[in-house]
Amino acid sequence: MLWTASQVLRKFSTSSHYYQNKLKLAIIGQSLFGQEVYSSLRKQGHRVVGVFTVPDKDGKADPLAVAAEKDGTPVFKFPRWRVKGKPIPEVVDAYKAVGAELNVMPFCSQFIPMNVIDDPKHGSIIYHPSILPLHRGASAINWTLIHGDKKAGFTVFWADDGLDTGPILLQRECAVEPNDTVDTLYNRFLFPEGIKAMVEAVQLIADGKAPRVPQTEEGASYEGIQKKSNAKVDLAQPAEAIHNWIRGHDKVPGAWTLIGGQSVTLYGSSMLGAAIPAGQPLEIEGASQPGAVTKNGLVLYGTDGKAVLVKNLQFEDGKMIPASKYFSSGESSSVELNEDEMKIAAEIKNIWKGILSNVPAVEDTTDFFKSGAASMDVVRLVEEVKQKCPDIQLQNEDVYMATTFQDFIQMLVRKLRGEDQEEELLIDYVTKDVNNMTVKMPNQCFINGRFEDAESGKTYNTVNPSDGSVICNVSYASVGDVDRAVAAAKEAYDNGPWGKMNPRDRGSLLYRLADLMEEHQEELATIETIDSGAVYTLALKTHVGMSIQTFRYFAGWCDKIQGKTIPINQARPNRNLTFTKKEPLGVCAIVIPWNYPLMMLAWKSAACLAAGNTLVLKPAQVVTPLTALKFAELSVKAGIPKGVINILPGSGGMVGQRLSEHPDVRKLGFTGSTPIGKQIMKSCAVSNLKKVSLELGGKSPLIIFRDCDMDKAVRMGMSSVYFNKGENCIAAGRLFVEESIHDEFISRVVEEIKKMKIGDPLDRSTDHGPQNHKAHLDKLLEYCEVGVKEGATLVYGGRQVDRPGFFMEPTVFTDVEDHMFIAKEESFGPVMVVSKFQDGDVEGVLQRANDTEYGLASGVFTRDINKAMYVSERLEAGTVFVNTYNKTDVASPFGGFKQSGFGKDLGEDALMEYLKTKAVTVEY
């Protein structure tokens, strides 16, 4: 069994003061990798007695030489070590004069004579970017991808007279992701972990603990450097093989094909999911079917019917373009620079001069790469430009797309002016002048970053409950729209930037989204008011205000999602490390109700997105979609990548059912009624056993004891019922009031109700707005009729207000007995249902309060802290309020027991609803 550095890592400390054994080293190699290995070894206390690297190229020293010369380390720049296979004596003598005990070759492209390899006391070690004996020879990373290996890695081995055949000192490996490239593999794993491994390997040698494991010939392979002439892609094969060939040659030497009779090199390949965008056909030599130039790039089809997306194309003259622009005619017109932009251009020219030190002067026609720049110079250019222009979004590939100074400046200025947007978001707004402002409302489905009509073309009316008038027509999504939205979300998760994004960057986007919601809070609150009937002041503070708080809270969680290490039972002498990772689920579906349209969206989607998932969200069936669609618009402005958020207004029976059945949806979060929740749970189980969280119905008890603060009990008791006109999932569905204070409590409640102003929810002085929609108002009126028929006493209300719209009087029932319909069923409206209980009968009232299949929330009012704590322990509900009510917070978990569902919104618990736990056990 091969040893790795991790097998011995626990045997010694990594702190420099512990290392007693140090070596005199010769570093032989080049590149930034070599520089980092050199610097790290010196930090660990090893003495570098000589650096042997390549001569300056175009007047520029290799990074390894630059670092060594700065430290005063002897540097030797030999163009070659051998001539006609024989060592050059003066070169060998110069090497031997430094007296190295070990040769370290972190990245070496030269052939080193064996009398140099074997000269030091400890010989020579070499870094190789493959899991030897696989892919011996050059271009090992490329061949890892070309062959479609599922694992990549590197080896530190002892040099011998073969080609990468020496004994192995240590190896490490990583998984190859579906759309990894040479660059991503190198940057993510081979570069950072390789540097650490070289340092560890040297210390193992210094401590006399370095293994020499002979390489097996089983599975051994050798592939040489791939030449451009051999890099033509065979398009008559499955899509994955095409993808592997292209990404394995990216960027050098570049896979190519013939289009229109000329050689075109293909860069930036990724596998496409189910959603293949429409495009303009393009004949390509050897392809099983024509490709398609789409807004996302060039689509190539494999013989298996699957597809590959190519992002960039490079022509024989060296010009590179986005593949999506293949059919674009003519050149884009150059922009004329203003005075400030000319100053920026002068500063950028100085950056070019600093990098291209071998060029006498940087002219408009100076080509960055033809002037000797390499890939690390691209990184330097991008980073230095960002320092000068902090707000610019500049990527490495932008340099490859604009290689001359003039083109680079033109590209930069367009970015600074905001003219580089991939595609302008087109919105067919519905506008209304209301609440002393003009609100602009999207009204179409939002799929893959675009607003578009439903596939069927169907629409429905969304109605203002204040007067029954139609606000606008809204697209009515179909099953086909669901499938397209899920495909877009899956593509965004599998291949888009969201899943690959640094969690902290993901958090920054969510913070930006919260900022935009705050900038538009008056508009959002106004839309919420006219669409749902919420009183404007409440909509501003709670519906919108808490939504903003929720996104900010979960944005802060993005870079704090952590696993844990776990001690497990070990059979000595084996040692094990077990740790867990929290990973996103994938595509999540979210179905929300109509009582808090934006807030329910925020409660679920903020946690979902913070965890790294993508989502398809269905607003409440045909009643309150408008703030969700406005939210979609703001998400684009915030920079959320396309496909991450999709919004589908439509029916639960069609859209919701398809989401619960869809095989590519991995989680469904639902807030709504218990019967629908049961149906959703069943569909989710039968389809693909997707994860489910349900926040369902409630009949929340509120117990008011005679030792309460009466003023507070009246005020909060009314709020527990009438908050948001009773359309509140945690509303107190039944109040139990101790007999000796019952009549006073009822009298004072009625007195306060008479003071409430019922009317236009946009009026700042209004206390009570309209019910959400007419069908709900009718249901509430019927609910009150049943209560009267069963013998409960209607003390106040129970009627529709005589004015346009769907207004209902705040209602109070007393003498409610336990068997009655209104004692057992939720009204979801402004109906206070009151029962009295005997003085001092704590056990009896607890039994009655818990005699329900629901368990969402509950409350107790008493000055006796012992009684309060006892009752809170006995109440069977997910939330217990003591001497308050409706006090929810973004950091506190929210969810119910029994038939009120399971799973949590808000707080860290909600985040866990959108993550899966992976356990990893390593034996070392």
Keywords:
single chain; 924 residues; alpha/beta; Rossmann fold; Methionyl-tRNA Fmet Formyltransferase, Chain A, domain 2; Non-ribosomal Peptide Synthetase Peptidyl Carrier Protein, Chain A; seven-stranded mixed sheet
Commentary on this structure:
There is one protein chain. The chain is α/β, with parallel strands linked by helices and 924 residues long. It has 28 helices and 40 strands. The strands form ten sheets. The chain has a seven-stranded mixed β-sheet. Strands 10, 11, 12, 13, 14, 15 and 16 form a seven-stranded antiparallel β-sheet that branches. A hairpin with an 8-residue loop joins strand 12 and strand 13 (291-294). The radius of gyration is 34 Å and the shape is elongated.
Secondary structure: elements and pairs:
Blueprint: H1 5-9, E1 24-28, H2 31-43, E2 47-53, H3 63-71, E3 75-77, E4 82-83, E5 86-87, H4 89-96, E6 102-105, H5 114-117, E7 124-128, H6 140-146, E8 151-158, E9 168-175, H7 182-206, H8 239-248, E10 255-259, E11 262-271, E12 280-282, E13 291-294, E14 297-301, E15 307-314, E16 320-322, H9 339-355, H10 375-388, H11 396-401, H12 405-416, E17 430-434, E18 437-441, E19 445-447, E20 450-452, E21 459-463, E22 470-475, H13 479-494, H14 497-500, H15 503-519, H16 521-532, H17 536-555, E23 565-566, E24 576-584, E25 587-591, H18 597-610, E26 614-618, H19 626-638, E27 645-647, H20 652-661, E28 665-671, H21 674-688, E29 691-695, E30 700-704, H22 710-722, E31 732-738, H23 739-753, H24 774-789, E32 793-796, E33 811-814, H25 821-824, E34 831-837, H26 842-849, E35 854-855, E36 857-861, H27 865-874, E37 879-882, E38 897-898, E39 901-902, H28 907-912, E40 915-923
Parallel strand pairs: 1-2, 1-6, 2-3, 6-7, 25-26, 25-28, 26-27, 28-29, 30-31, 30-36, 31-34, 33-34, 36-37
Antiparallel strand pairs: 4-5, 7-8, 8-9, 10-11, 11-15, 12-13, 13-14, 14-15, 15-16, 17-18, 19-20, 21-22, 23-24, 24-40, 29-39, 32-33, 35-38
GO cellular component, one term: cytoplasm
Protein name: 10-formyltetrahydrofolate dehydrogenase
Family: Belongs to the aldehyde dehydrogenase family.
